[in-house]
Amino acid sequence: MGLFKRGQVWWMRFTYKGKQVRLSTEVSDKKLAEKIHAKVSTQIAEGKWFERPIGENKVFEEMLDKYLTEYSSSKTLLGRDRDKSIAKRLLSFFGGLKLTEIGSALVVEYKSKRRKEGAAPATIEREICVLKRSFNLAVKEWEWLRDNPVSRVSRERFNNQIDRWLTLEEEEKLLEACPDWLKQIVTFALNVGMRQGEILDLRWPYIDLFRKTATVMESKNGEKRTVPLNQKAHEVLISQSKIRHIKSDYVFVTSVGTRIGKRNLARPFTVAVAKAGIQKFRFHDLRHTFATRLIQSGIDIYTVAKLLGHKDIRMTQRYAHHSTESLRIGVEVLDRVSTNLAQSGETKEKRATALTVTL
After folding, report:
1. Catalytic residue annotation
2. Quick one: average pLDDT of 290-297?
3. Backbone φ, ψ for residue 103 (5° rounding)
């Protein structure tokens, strides 16, 4: 048996029934920790100590608050906001319960409740992922529990394959339906492939109009990336620079110079999409359109992945849709191969004939 310190708190380490146990004394005073340690040693020797669940006094709110403070806080602004929103829904169901009272059956009950409320399978899966990560931290890093009840719950089945992108005709109609400020943002999104949050977070210090680049300082994966600008995107930024607000360094701002929020953008965009007569189209599908057009034009998927800021090529493959005409390029290669082989055969035959005549 022994004492060791973790942070400001003293912990005990001992063997009980052939299994190593680490238990917090929950005190930072070493002398008090030694007394607690001695008491537990005596109870074990006398057979009066019984292993209790580590998290028996920890409630769900404590775990979720620690998750948001220590884990979620390192995410991007979009990630933090999403986690906070999910946390509210989880708290409405699990709030007030001790961690030891939450089992797999209760997690399944939560999923069932969310389905009845009309939540999409992908939404439920994101909520369960936050719950699972929280419990994983409680088990592996904070040692509040010995088991993660969510690990035994099956994942939601859903197809998140994206099949929606703008045709050139739809793009024209959408831009016509947008007010000028929104038209600038939509045009920019279609030509740079950035996420909505990345576009709204763009600041002038990270724009180089001379080199035609825009730098995303904090992407979804936490990394910085610099995106080259084509002519249309460059023209949008030049136009925005002429109306740059004196009190803000954001590229796209409201009439009073503040950053355009997600909600400020959502309603006008939805109205414009409806006005243009376009069905089932989200702002994120502008990024999808960007990627799909590049791939259909023959740009290799690794280049597209770099432009989108994807670490895993499998993420980019979700956007890799091809039109019939873009696929035609692939099969027409066979015609060129056949022609080249035929021409090669004719050349060899001519050479052989020429050699015979010479002889």
Report:
1. 195, 220, 284, 287, 310, 319
2. 88
3. -115, 180
Sign of the four-CA dihedral 226, 190, 303, 310: positive
Q: Cα–Cα distance between 51 and 352 in angstroms, integer? A: 92
Among the listed residues 41, 10, 38, 43, the one whose alpha carbon sits nearest the alpha carbon of residue 24: 10
**What average pLDDT is seen over the chain?**
84
Single residue among 89, 123, 152 that ends a domain in this structure: 152
Do 210 and 328 share a domain, yes or no?
no
Cβ count near 210 (within 10 Å) = 6
Edge-to-edge strand order for the sheet containing 213-216? 207-208, 213-216, 225-228
Q: Which structural domain, as residue segments, surrounds residue 93?
A: 60-152
- Assigned token pair, 226: 């610099």
Please indicate, yes or no, if residue 54 is contained in any of the structural domains.
Answer: no
Q: Is residue 163 situated within a structural domain? A: no
Residue 161 lies in a domain: no
Whether residue 186 sits in one domain with residue 298: yes
Q: What is the length of the chain?
A: 359
Q: Are residues 7 and 31 in the same domain?
A: yes
Q: What is the pLDDT of residue 65?
A: 93
Per the structure block, which two tokens stand in for 286? 């502008």
Q: Note whether 198 and 98 are same-domain residues.
A: no
Structure tokens at 287: 């990024």
pTM: 0.58
pLDDT of residue 310: 85
The b/e string for 37-71 (b: 16+ C-beta within 10 A; e otherwise) is beebeeebeeeebeeeebbeebbbebbbebbbeeb
Domain co-membership, 175 together with 312: yes
CA-angle at 23, arms to 18 and 28, nearest 5°? 150
